[in-house]
Structure formats: C-alpha cells, structure tokens
Specification:
Layout (H helix, E strand, L loop, with lengths): L4 H8 L4 E8 L2 E8 L6 E5 L13 H5 L3 E5 L17 H15 L5 E6 L1 H12 L4 E7 L10 H6 L2 H10 L5 H9 L10 H11 L7 H5 L3 E2 L2 E2 L16 E6 L7 H10 L4 E4 L6 H4 L1 H13 L2
Parallel strand pairs: 3-4, 3-5, 5-6, 6-9, 9-10
Antiparallel strand pairs: 1-2, 2-4, 7-8
Helix pairs in contact: 1-8, 3-4, 7-8
Length: 295
C-alpha cells in the first residue's frame, strides 16, 4: 500500500511527530506535536492553508529545546472546515485554535506565526485567553497595508476568479512552482513536503491555495480585519519579527518602519523570500533561539 504523503513527510523528520484531533465547540482541529512535553511550549502556526507541514525544516532543531505544538487551522491541512466557516477571520480561525489549545491544557506558551498564521498568533496574544510569553511574526499578514501589483490584480473579482480557474496544482511540478513563486530558494523545498502540499491542495475545491489567500484582500486593499496596527499596543507579551528580506509580497522598507514604530525588534534573513524557515532554516532557528533566550 502506498504510504500517505502525511506519513512520508512525518518520517522525513527525525524527531517523532504525533497527530491528534482536538474536538472543540467550533469544530475539530488537528494538532501535531513534537519534542518532550516537559520542555517549554512553542506553538507554530502555519501560513496559507497548507498545514503544520510548513515547519518541517525546523522541527528537529526546535524540538530539542521546546515542546512544539503545530495546529492545522480549520479548513487547512488535515483539519476539517469548522462550524464558523465564512464568518470573520476571528471566529473562523482564532476561536477554534484558542479552544483547542485550552482543551489540551496549553498555557504560558511562546507563539510563532507565519504569513496568515502571524495574524492568528497576534490575535491569540491580544485576546489573552491563553498566557502568551512571546510572539514571533514571520513574514506576516497585517503588518502593513502594502499590496504588490499581482496581489492587487488578484483582489479584483473577475481577474482573481480567472486566476483560480487557471492555476493548476495537480502535479508535483505544478505544486512546487506555485509554492516557490514567493521564495528566493525554491530548490530548498523537499520532495516529501511538495507531495504533502499537493495532496492538501487537492483535497477539495476549498483547499485551492489561491481561493484561500484571495480572502485576505478586498478590491485593491488588504482586508480591514487583518490590519494589526491597532492590535500591537494591546499585546502584553514581547513581540519580534523574523523576515525574509527578498519576499516579493512585502516592501521590506515599510516592514522595517512598521516594526520601528511599535519598538519591536526585527531580524531580516537577507537571502530569503516568503518562507525563511525553509529557505534558510539554520539562520532562521538561530534568530528564534536568540529572541527566546532573552526571555
């Protein structure tokens, strides 16, 4: 019998990864864990709709120091669509994850979020239903209002609709090309991860990556719910950023200015695009470790 891509990805990681489905009043949430449960807890929240597998390149190193908790957000990865689907981002993604972590008895945690997961992480920290010790923002949505030309075009319904219909992720090569577009080093994507992502994208029409990310915009602008400028002052935990400096989705000068305004430290991985934890995993982990060691 052919091994599932989820199992193949898990077995490519030296550290054992355990999977569990956590039932909440908002729907079920799949959570992957790795590392000794006696270590400090570190929650890693993926971007887009790919799932916990986004963290594969850093699990071995980080799990030697932290108990990693890596959820699949509702309707992403291998979590089913939740009961709050197509309401607000807060109700659809933040509340189910918050409930799942509470059900697991997870508290006093460090949280790191990538892309859309950064916004989710920031909202968890701001709500304070869970005690957050630190918040790491990795190439995160909501820091700034900037949209590049392609994102602006995709935000216009007729153009975006055509793009969703034309972008195909049926083969591994197509999937790798899609994943690699915002990266400086797509060659760092492992075969196991590409197969995993391809299977996630083809689970259902709602898992099409462009369908998911297009929800982050209104015509020609970031969705107003995702803007974090007013949220950062309400977060008690220390906040820092790690950013791929060559990410085409952001203007790095504007990102630096936004972090400076809120007096939050920002570490730039100069030779990386949108996914620094895969493209430059060693440098990425060193930056995370340096921040967490200060706490």
């Amino acid at each position: 019998m052919r091994m599932s891509s989820l199992n193949q990805l898990s077995q490519s990681i030296r550290t054992p990864v355990s999977l569990a489905t956590i039932a909440t009043s908002h729907g079920d949430v799949q959570v992957a864990t790795a590392g000794d449960a006696g270590l400090p807890s570190l929650v890693l929240i993926h971007g887009a709709n790919i799932g916990w597998g986004m963290w594969y390149a850093v699990i071995d190193r980080l799990a030697s120091q932290y108990h990693l908790i890596m959820p699949d957000l509702p309707g992403c990865g291998h979590s089913p669509v939740g009961k709050n689907a197509n309401t607000t981002f807060l109700r659809e993604f933040v509340l189910p994850l918050e409930a799942a972590l509470q059900s697991m008895g997870i508290n006093a945690v460090h949280i790191i979020g990538h892309s859309f997961g950064g916004w989710v992480a920031a909202m968890l920290a701001a709500r304070e239903a869970i005690s957050v010790r630190s918040l790491g923002m990795i190439n995160s949505v909501g820091i700034d209002t900037y949209l590049n030309t392609k994102s602006k075009l995709l935000s216009i319904p007729p153009i975006g609709d055509k793009a969703v219909a034309s972008v195909c992720v049926k083969t591994n090569d197509q999937t790798k090309a899609f994943l690699g577009e915002p990266m400086s080093h797509p060659e760092t994507l492992s075969d196991e991860f590409v197969q995993y992502a391809r299977d996630v994208f083809n689970t259902s029409a709602s898992h099409h990556p462009l369908s998911f990310t297009r929800r982050f915009t209104k015509p020609l602008q970031i969705h107003p719910e995702l803007l974090l400028n007013h949220v950062f002052p309400t977060i008690a935990a220390p906040v820092y950023g790690v950013w791929g400096g060559e990410d085409p989705l952001f203007d790095i000068s504007r990102i630096k200015a936004a972090f400076a305004v809120h007096k939050m430290p920002l570490h730039v991985v100069s030779d990386a695009g949108h996914v620094p934890m895969i493209e430059k995993s060693t440098e990425f982990c060193a930056m995370i470790e340096a921040e967490l060691s200060r706490l």
